[in-house]
From TrEMBL:
The keyword Calcium does not apply. The keyword Zinc applies. GO terms for molecular function: dioxygenase activity. The lineage of its organism: Bacteria, Pseudomonadati, Bacteroidota, Flavobacteriia, Flavobacteriales. Keywords: Dioxygenase, Metal-binding, Oxidoreductase, Zinc. SUPFAM superfamilies: LigB-like (SSF53213). It comes from Wandonia haliotis. InterPro entries: Extradiol_dOase_DODA (IPR014436), Xdiol_dOase_suB (IPR004183). Belongs to the DODA-type extradiol aromatic ring-opening dioxygenase family. CDD domains: 45_DOPA_Dioxygenase. This is 4,5-DOPA dioxygenase extradiol. Its cofactor is Zn(2+). Residues 46-261 form the Extradiol ring-cleavage dioxygenase class III enzyme subunit B domain.
Amino acid sequence: MAVVPLTGVAMNLKEFGRITEGFGNTEKMPVLFLGHGSPMNAIEENEFVRGFRESVRTIPRPKAILCISAHWETKGTRVTAMPNPRTIHDFGGFPKALYEVNYPAPGSPELAEATKKIITKTEVILDDKWGLDHGAWSVIKHMYPDADIPVVQMSLDYQQTPAYHYELARELDRLRSKGILIIGSGNMVHNLRMVAWDKMNVDDYGYDWALEASDKMKQFIQNGNHTSLINYRSNGRPFELAVPTPEHYLPLLYTLALQRKDEKVSLFNDKAMAGSLTMTSVRIG
């Protein structure tokens, strides 16, 4: 599936316009995929954190953020709709300082409702229990440290195919012209079972299969070859090892699905870690 113009998205424009009236109309916002890596990036100062910060220096201040995180998988599609989402510490075995981090960004029931209205592929459930998991707050806190921009999360339906997620994501396009920054947060290459823990501090270290998969992914991204990225399981053994489970990979498809024809794509934080992970991040627009 190559990059094609987004047209004919069925939606209730009147309802959508009413809900998003407070956002106003803006130039089309860029879209980001962030390789979030270890939760420790939330409290460390390193090149990846600097990359997260730098990524928003040339982006207009968002009215709100919609984040699709690898760490919220549900049956069906949900969006957080509470006014004050909690900070979720969804990990174990880390230093006390990481569990003490609180990112008190407000939510946006208006954006949640607008997201529900704009998606026609499935019935979106408004959720009042989740919050912000570390796939969202560990990166967004570096981009917007004042926690004064509303953040809404959208879940990944674990029952669905990559093609389904890509097609659903395309329906989010109209939010880009309402000042909404859409972020996918995961990792393109993510195989925790094969991490070389003794190489954690070795710069840009990847196994041969991880580097091969990463190089092919980046080539497909730069060439607008979304079909090969959607059908990643058909790309051989390196991809099988790079994406043993889909949850960290799918947020990339949410970002790429929103690419319009002739929109510029750039990569940053483009390094491997510990053999079987990559921090590669993508900006569109």
